[in-house]
Structure formats: C-alpha cells, structure tokens
Nicotinamidase-related amidase (Kibdelosporangium banguiense), 186 residues
Amino acid sequence: MADNRVALVLIDVLDAFFAPGRPAYYPDSVKALDPLRALLTKAREQERLIVHAVERHRPGLADFEHKKIPVHCEIGDDQSPYVAGFEPLDTPNEIEVPKRRYSAFYATDLDLLLREQGVETLLVAGVKTNVCVRATIQDAFAGGYEILLAKEATNSNRPHLAEASLEDIDRYFGSVVSVEQALERL
C-alpha cells in the first residue's frame, strides 16, 4: 500500500438495501451505487485499505437490534450478499468487518485493525446516512480519526433525516465532501 493513512470504509453495500424486493430496499439507494463504485475503483487502484463493514446477524438467535427493526441480513440469507462488483477482493488490503450493530466499531476489531495499519483518515460511504453511516462516523470521531463522508455516495429512505445527519456530521464529526474531493484524497 502506498499511503496507508487513508482508508475507505464502505457501509452495508448489500442486496438488502439495493435489490428491489428486499425488505430494507428503498428506490433512492441505487443513486449511490455509481459514486460508491467510483470510490471503490480508485481505492483499489491506489491499493488503499478497504473495509467492507456489513450487517451479519446470526440466524435463530436473539439480537437486540431486532427489538427496533425487522430481522435482516442473517448470515446466509438472500439479503446478505454484496451488490455485484462490491465483494471484497482476495487481497490483504480488502477486508470484511461483520457487524451486528449500526456502528462498524461497536464490538468489532475495526479500531485495532486501523491503528495497526497506521490509518488516520477514514473516507466513509454507504447506507443509510442517518443510521449505520452516522453511528460509524460518531464512533470514528470518538476514536480520534479524521472523517470524510462522500455526500453522493450515501443516502437514506428518510431524506430529511439524511440531510439532518449530513449537517450534523459536517458540523460535529468530520467533513462532508463531494465524490470528486473524496477521489482526490484517495
């Protein structure tokens, strides 16, 4: 890896959110796919650390998240596959971080992994802006990382909450940037 201080963190680029007919699908999700693809392509070209943070719930076991939202993304179900082309490559710098909560940091080894690689800046993208993206960014901020959120590469089924989250993220936790600016940082 050339400059390991910047890592790309993709949040929940899974069929559950992007494939029509899935319970978590919403039509605007697909608007983020081209910007997400551009970021992933550039990160791969630059040999950046790429973290695929994805929902992975255990089938048949209690999960506190299910008290608030329907069962989703159970290991092996039809919602869990990656959107085609977003599967992690079999290289050391592309990893999957399974998560059972909204934040990619909560109860995972993400922080340890990033610190061991010398990462200081996280370029975050994915769904949903007001839930998993925001929770991950808040925890990253608490951990002392510089955070960039690529505006066009995130959205939500609740646009008013996504807009409020973008404002809060830019004001309190990091910087909301254009995809072009994000590509420059990669």
